[in-house]
Amino acid sequence: xxxxxxxxxxxxHLEELIKSTTDRLILIxxxxxxxxxxxxxxxxxxxxxxxIRIVYRESKLQLDESNWLESQIGVRTSICPSLHAxxxxxxxxxxxxxxxxxSFSQQNNDEMGIHVTKExxxxxxxxxxxxxxxxxxxxxxxxxxxxxxxxxSNGQKNKIETPVINKKGDFSKAVYKxxxxxxxxxGLSSRKINEWLxxxxxxxxxxxxxxxxxxxxxxxxxxxxxxxGKFIIWPEEIAKExx
Length: 243
Known about the structure:
243 residues; eight-stranded mixed sheet
């Protein structure tokens, strides 16, 4: 049977839900501002290589939140512009609530919610899980990146940005390589190659498929489909640009 939660109950059960995750954690909230304890729990799950998905509405995060999310390489984030729902679930339980994953909401707002377990309410849990999966499907997966701001000795701010390539060309005679082959050419891991391509807005991941952006197509990216979903091959010259 579903359990009613007040503000304190939502905060308590949310923290316990995150801590007890053994397989997959899905956090759905239009706005994000992580409490320190929530950050610690997510970080620990990330170290244990749990599958962590975060869906939110606003692509503009505060610098501290963006920097922290950027540091959590294994955490997958998605943007859903129409999102208003707040839902948090793992493989065994779920919370549907009015409370954003936002420190201010947890400490200052009057919130309500319900707590559902898969064991006691399997049908209700299934309905919540399927709707969460639908939101993941319609959301655009992104890699959170920010411009870090440092002060130089003369007091001016210096922005450190991800290198971006902008060259267009004729790729009709190009030799195409997969991410794995680019990894061998550049000496970087396939994961780093993917991160670089995403950071430079050449491709993005939706569900289990890698999709090319318009800029990626202009730079020679070609979509292919294989046993494990869609992927992209690139002109081997791009390996020289990857740092």
